[in-house]
Each structure stands twice: as C-alpha cells, then as structure tokens.
Amino acid sequence: MPEVERKPKITASRKLLLKSLMLAKAKECWEQEHEEREAEKVRYLAERIPTLQTRGLSLSALQDLCRELHAKVEVVDEERYDIEAMSGMEGRKKMFDAAKSPTSQ
Asked: Which residues in the chain belong to E strands, given as ranges?
C-alpha cells in the first residue's frame, strides 16, 4: 500500500499569522491588566493615605513631623522583620519536624 502524503490542515503562513495575532491580543490584555492594577493601586493609596499637609508649617513643626514619620517607619520595619523572621522559623521548624518524623526514615 502506498502511503498517502497528508496535507496539513492549516498552512504554515496561516499558522504564523494566527500565532502573531494571539500574541498581540495577549500583549494587549496584559497591558490593560497592568494599567488596571496601577489605577487600583493609586485609588487604594489615595483612599488609605491622606495627603501630607506641609504648607504653612514652621521649621520646628516640619522637624517634628519628620521625627514622627521616621518613628512610624521604624515600627513598621520592625513588624515586617518580625513577621519575616517568624515565617522563616516556621518553615525551618516544619522541615525539621518532617526530617525527624518516623515515616520519612
């Protein structure tokens, strides 16, 4: 029996065209999603963080404001560090517990 040469259902140029159209559509969707995320971030920050009013403040009032802001940043950094340290400790504890469990031997 002679083998019949099969023709592809779609030509290579058509396949390439469809592939490029799909990539263009994916890029467009990704860019739109990125813009929406940025707009959502701006909206969220505007809602959660009031604008900083520095007009009309004296030098000493500005310095006090800076000290207050630095203190808040320091507290947040300490909390972030503690959370990261605790999550790291939990991960190590789970690995240690799994290593010494009798089922793993």
From this structure: none
Cα angle value 33/39/41 (rounded, 5°): 105
Tokens of 40: 């959502």
* Tokens encoding 4: 């019949």
Residue 50 main-chain phi, psi, to 5 deg: -70, 155
For residues 37 and 31, what is the distance between their CA atoms, to the nearest angstrom?
Answer: 10
**Digit-coded pLDDT (tens) for 15-53:** 999 999 999 999 999 999 999 999 999 999 889 888 888
**For residue 55, which amino acid is it?**
R
Locate 91 and state its tokens.
Answer: 């991960």
What pLDDT digit, counting tens, does each position of 40-92 carry?
Answer: 999 998 898 888 888 888 999 999 999 999 999 999 999 999 888 888 776 66
Q: Where are the domains of the chain?
A: 9-48, 57-104
